[in-house]
Amino acid sequence: MKHIKEIKDTYVIAEIGCNHNGDTDLGLKMIDSAKLNGADAVKFQFFTKDNLVTDGHLRELDNGHVQYENVNNWQTKELGLNNIFEQVEAFTNTEEQLRIFHAHAKEIGIGFGCTPVDSAGANLLKDLEVDFLKLASMDVSNLPFLNDCIDTGLPIIISTGMADLPEIDSLYQAFLKRDYDNFALLHCISIYPPRDEMINLNFITTLKNLYDCEIGYSDHSLGSEIAIASIAKGVRIIEKHFTLDKNMPGWDHKISANPEELEFLTKGCKKVFRVLGDSYKRLSSEELEKRWKFRRSLTLKCDVKKGDKLVPEMLVYKRPGTGLMPSEEIYVLGRKFKDSYATDTTLTLEHFE
């Protein structure tokens, strides 16, 4: 993908993130599984504890003074990781891993995107020629960083979780100020998982009415139904966390789609997109053919003789629809029959003088 506008069908992004738990072989298997189960792209993250978060905040997470719903239940001691510092160190993608993952994705023919958190990461991804940058909701208000990402010239997809409408508008205007149209905004609720009443898919319509850009949806809900439903709101880009096993220890496995769910999601999204069509009413040749089988025609409910005049009491409306339509009876009432006709005759203009 060179430009967001190239997307003509649904574009499902399997967000692997750090769900490979730092294991390169597992990451490669996840890329293969995402491809097998219909995803159009995979997405990773590129950060370190030094460019994302302070040590003080990590300590607050570690001792439970700060709670992340998808963080404080990691259960990563199964992996030999005893604290959050060890977890971040283990799960972070290295530059070498990103190169391996990108090369493999390219080899098997699936798109590859990544979330950078600083300009150095964005520039590395530019050098790798990834398909897109995916900016996290946390960076909606980080406009200096956004400009660094725009400088890469890569397609930019950005989630809008935690942002109110004025912040989303400032983000959109920042793209316009740079005369940059290679971007998409994703409706997102940054809760893992959100309650149903939080999701508010109707807000997608608001975004589509306000902004001249692609509007997508980043889904943190459990299951696949809500992501599929968003397609009916005009969404084409869908992002969904992905794992091979929801019971695996790690950060986002429990709120991620497993392979079976990803397959259901991708097929469902494509089917809903296909059936949406456009705003025009078009009749297929098959439906037109059904007209003469299923519609009703003016039909005699009694025998008539030559010269008799047609009156309403002589009529019933029956299939097939090869004769005069019921709405056309006003044109033949009172007219004389050319000949004698039996009950159940389907009437046409040929039956009248």
Overall description:
The chain is of the alpha/beta class. The protein contains 13 helices and 10 strands. It has helices spanning 24-36, 49-52, 55-62, 84-91, 95-108, 119-128, 143-151, 165-177, 196-199, 202-210, 225-231, 259-276, 285-294, and strands at 11-17, 41-46, 111-116, 132-135, 156-159, 183-188, 214-219, 237-241, 297-300, 315-318. Helix 1 runs parallel beside helix 5. The N and C termini lie far apart (68 Å). 36% of the residues are buried. The model has no long low-confidence stretch (mean pLDDT 93).
Present the secondary structure layout:
Layout: E1 11-17, H1 24-36, E2 41-46, H2 49-52, H3 55-62, H4 84-91, H5 95-108, E3 111-116, H6 119-128, E4 132-135, H7 143-151, E5 156-159, H8 165-177, E6 183-188, H9 196-199, H10 202-210, E7 214-219, H11 225-231, E8 237-241, H12 259-276, H13 285-294, E9 297-300, E10 315-318
Parallel strand pairs: 1-2, 1-8, 2-3, 3-4, 4-5, 5-6, 6-7, 7-8
Antiparallel strand pairs: 9-10
Helix pairs in contact: 1-5, 11-12
In short:
With 353 residues, the protein is α/β, with parallel strands linked by helices. The chain has helices spanning 24-36, 49-52, 55-62, 84-91, 95-108, 119-128, 143-151, 165-177, 196-199, 202-210, 225-231, 259-276, 285-294; strands at residues 11-17, 41-46, 111-116, 132-135, 156-159, 183-188, 214-219, 237-241, 297-300, 315-318.
